[in-house]
Amino acid sequence: MSDEESIMPIRQGSIDQLCGVYSVMNATEAVIGKFHYDRKLKHKASQRKTLFHDLINHLDKQGMLRAVLTSGIEHIDENGLIDIAVKSVKKYQKRKLRKQIAFDTDDVTLDQYWEKLTQHLSQPDSAAIICLSGRIKHWTCIRRITPNVLILSDSLGIRQIARDRCTIETENRELYTLWPTLTYLLSFV
After folding, report:
1. Are strands 176-178 and 166-167 parallel, antiparallel or unpaired?
2. For residue 171, what are the β-bridge partners?
3. Domain 9-188: which topology?
């Protein structure tokens, strides 16, 4: 096999750091169901494309796009990304999307974290956006939770994370570190 034949093509999204943007989009869709399709929008765009455009445009206007594309985003809520999704849902679904920070401190146990997410995700039309570090530095969306597993809607294709592979107390390259103050709960009001 020649070198040319063994080189795999670079896939769209494989080297950008837009997981924060995708986590907001995936959580929004987990709460609302399918995105709205409006024939009146330019180029017959869906709400999904419009929301993506709005999120990217916001990062650009804030002078953050280059950094987010190459290095990722530390705080999706402080940068207003979830608020843009809230406005989109209000405009297209005529419903109010509520966001709340799961904890005001990172000083919680894994049991407390799991219980809070279990209570929230047991409600219909709910999702959570979480920040991971340790094994991977990544923003993702939790759409369901069981006593043993986080079930994701994830831009990297991660389907689930086992509870016994999670920690809060320490940052360990072998485990997924969860950050309670960087956990956002979304649902309808």
Report:
1. parallel
2. none
3. Cathepsin B; Chain A (3.90.70)
